[in-house]
Write a structure and sequence with these properties.
The chain has 213 residues and is an alpha+beta fold. It has 4 helices and 8 strands, in the order βββββαβββααα. β4 and β5 form a beta hairpin. The protein starts with 7 loop residues before the first strand and ends with a helix.
């Protein structure tokens, strides 16, 4: 059965979403979870609602979201393991697998999602905010790429149904110095991050080849 009302939360979700091409080094040093989520229902017209079942280790969370863009109504309920296992097969064909890293940043938490399976290669950073003002005033770190808040192509519901394909032939991320960073130090940093990304991609590819599902 569903857990008691004390395990239910209702909130307004305010978040911004960004693509990431070169994640920070030493990701495994941050708190992280392997997340599988599937969708029991997706409504893209009218109310723009979704019913999501998320599995983290042996925990199941049922979430209903309504609305679109940077602010949405969200209600979440913790399910019993028994009920979660019964509902999970109903999400077949509409699932996403990712590893979520939680990175502290200026009093906020960056949730960095590294996707697996059909969306392998996609890395997205999400940041949630307590108010609209905080959301609008947010200054992203230099390693954030293009903002994709509200873009359907990067919605988890779409990825769950269609997967994701890397865009080929796209332009490289422009070189950006950090505040007070010398050009020579910036060049070394970009080269180092590029090498780290290459090794991370290789490790991810090898891991996905031997992963047991």
């Amino acid at each position: 059965m569903i857990a008691s009302n004390t395990d239910r939360t209702t909130m307004i979700e305010r978040e911004r979403k960004f693509l990431v091409s070169i994640p920070p080094a030493h990701l495994d040093g941050y708190r992280h979870d392997s997340i599988e989520q599937g969708y029991l229902a997706i409504e893209t017209a009218g109310a723009h609602a979704e019913v999501r079942l998320r599995r983290i280790a042996n925990r199941y969370l049922l979430t209903v979201k309504q609305g679109q863009g940077s602010s949405r109504l969200e209600e979440e309920v913790t399910l019993s393991v028994e009920l979660g296992r019964k509902l999970w097969p109903l999400t077949r064909g509409r699932r996403v697998h990712k590893v979520r890293y939680k990175i502290p940043y200026q009093g906020l938490t960056i949730e960095l999602d590294v996707y697996r399976g059909r969306a392998r290669g996609l890395i997205v950073a999400e940041v949630e905010f307590d108010s609209g003002d905080a959301m609008r005033c947010f200054d992203p770190p230099p390693w954030f790429g293009e903002e994709v808040t509200g873009r359907k192509k990067f919605a988890n519901t779409r990825i769950a149904e269609r997967g994701w394909k890397r865009r080929r032939g796209g332009s490289a991320k422009p070189f950006r110095l950090n505040p007070h960073e010398a050009v020579s130090d910036g060049v070394r940093r970009i080269v180092r991050e590029g090498l780290i990304r290459a090794v991370t991609t290789l490790d991810r590819d090898v891991s996905s080849d031997v992963q047991i599902h």
